[in-house]
Amino acid sequence: MAQQTTPKKGDFSQGSIPKTVLRLGIPIAMAEIVHVLYNIVDRIFIGHIPGIGTAALSGVGIAFPLISLITAFANLCGTGGNPLCSIARGEGDNARAQRILETAFTMLLIFSALLTAILFLFAGPFLAAMGGDEETLPFALEYFRIYVAGTVFVLISLGMNPFINGMGFTKIGMGTVVIGAALNIALDPLFIFVLHMGVKGAAIATVISQFVSSVWVIRFLTGNKTLLPIQRLHLDMLEVPRILKLGVTGFMFKFSNSVAQTVVNLTLKTFGGAASTLYIGAFSIINSMREVISQPISGINQASVPVMSYNYGARNYDRVKKAIRFMIAAALTYNVIAWIVVFTHPAQLIRMFTNDAALIETAIPCLHIYYAAYFMMSFQMGGQNTFVALNKPKYAVFFSMLRKLFLIVPLTILLPRVGFGVMGVFYAEMLSQIIGASLCCIVMYFRIYKRLPAENGQPSSL
After folding, report:
1. What is the spatial distance between Cα 200 and Cα 143, in angstroms, rounded to a whole number?
2. DSSP classification of residue 420
3. Mean pLDDT lowest among 153-167, 374-388, 393-407
4. Average pLDDT, the chain
């Protein structure tokens, strides 16, 4: 009787698919939850600053689109390079996998230099154009200009951590964000309340935390324990367009989110009237809650990508299909539970961010509408991650743009003007989840899942 061997590190061609995904996904999910605390903890403490909490929270909400834009460039290299790296490893081409890793790292450094200069110089006009006014703009500027100083740390930690997870070192990947977030949690109350630095203190705490996370990432990826060490700064001009082509889906996900948030803020300011600051604050809280709620299952989705990519490169198509099925089933189960919790305990969740009675009263009906079809996102992310994992950039880019740019933006502009008023902003999100998720999953099933070869080892016609 043959003895069963344990798969070597980073080899996803053996073992149970659910167990493999969960083994990778649980540390990633924990890391993702902790990562969200970078900004969420800031917003929780900012929302509780005596006297200015609501205005300050709304001001930071104005800065969300630009923060999303920064993370979009991390996604451009991380979601573009990691699947290609995993496919190359599955094909046994570790030399190419290392070139992809080094190229992505060099691209992140270039992007960080450009973003830091542009966003720092033009922060004022950008934030004003995104809805900042005399009440909220000072807080937005105070927070964002300091946050921008840490752009290089954000891009390194967020952009390179997917490679660490993709090689199977998920505990190291978890450490990237746990260390930074724990530091942020400790420093926030110190800077905001003890040293009386307010919004500025929250931003300083975040930058210090991101710096520590980036040092952790660089030390691991240049050390002896990684499968693919970074040995030089290098741009492989054959790999750059491939990374950009596939990574544009992750970029567009964040970029379109930035555009949608800007349109939402401007619409809330226009139709919210005297209560516009409350509505912007409510949207900021709802957005923050969504980040927290989505992260656990996001970890499972992220873990599924290298598993699908590796087995696709190795032509193990039955394992690719099993990973797709498990990813969607796990997401649907989790999202239905999250949906029930949000609908049954809205006030308790909102009070994590504010004690302002008027803001809580405003946010509850907005929350109910916004999350009415949230469970549908299981199908959106399932389809989206399959397109990325199997290197299908055209589908991935289209569906990353569809929900935010082609549905939310026009619906946000239209619905308040046809009788829904300010609540039309939140109905736009609900409708986009139903339409966008349905189309994404249907196309993935007929164009990808059903076309995977029936036998392993055969060339794919995808």
Report:
1. 5
2. T
3. 393-407
4. 86
The amino acid occupying position 148 is: V
State the DSSP code for 227: S
Query: Which of 56 and 113 is assigned the larger pLDDT?
Result: 113
Tens-digit pLDDT profile for residues 346-366: 999 888 888 888 989 999 999
Helices 377-389 and 53-90, packing angle to 10 deg: 40
Please name the residues in contact with 137: beta carbons below 8 A apart, sequence gap of 6 or more: 59, 62, 124, 127, 128
Q: How far apart are CA 406 and CA 436, in angstroms?
A: 9
Going by C-beta distance under 8 Å and a sequence separation of 6 or more, which residues neighbour residue 412? 260, 263, 264, 267, 424, 425, 428
pLDDT digits (tens, 9 = 90+) for 258-304: 788 889 888 998 898 888 888 888 888 888 888 778 877 888 888 89
Counting beta carbons within 10 angstroms of the beta carbon of residue 376, is it exposed (0 to 12), middle (13 to 18) or buried (19 or more)?
buried
Which residue pairs, CB below 8 angstroms and at least 24 apart, start in 328-332?
A: 328/378, 328/379, 328/382, 328/441, 330/21, 330/297, 330/300, 331/297, 331/300, 331/301, 331/377, 331/378, 331/381, 331/382, 332/375, 332/378, 332/379
CB burial of 225-238 (b: ≥16 within 10 Å; e: otherwise) equals ebbbebeeeeebee
Q: Angle, to 10 degrees, between the axis of helix 198-221 and the axis of helix 137-149?
A: 20
Confidence of residue 7 (pLDDT cuts 50, 70, 90): low
pLDDT score for 4 = 44
Least trusted range by pLDDT, from 133-142, 228-237, 386-395: 133-142
Q: How far apart are CA 205 and CA 183, in angstroms?
A: 8
Nearest to 370 by CA among 288, 269, 259: 288
Q: Answer whether 101's CB lies under 8 Å from 125's CB.
A: no
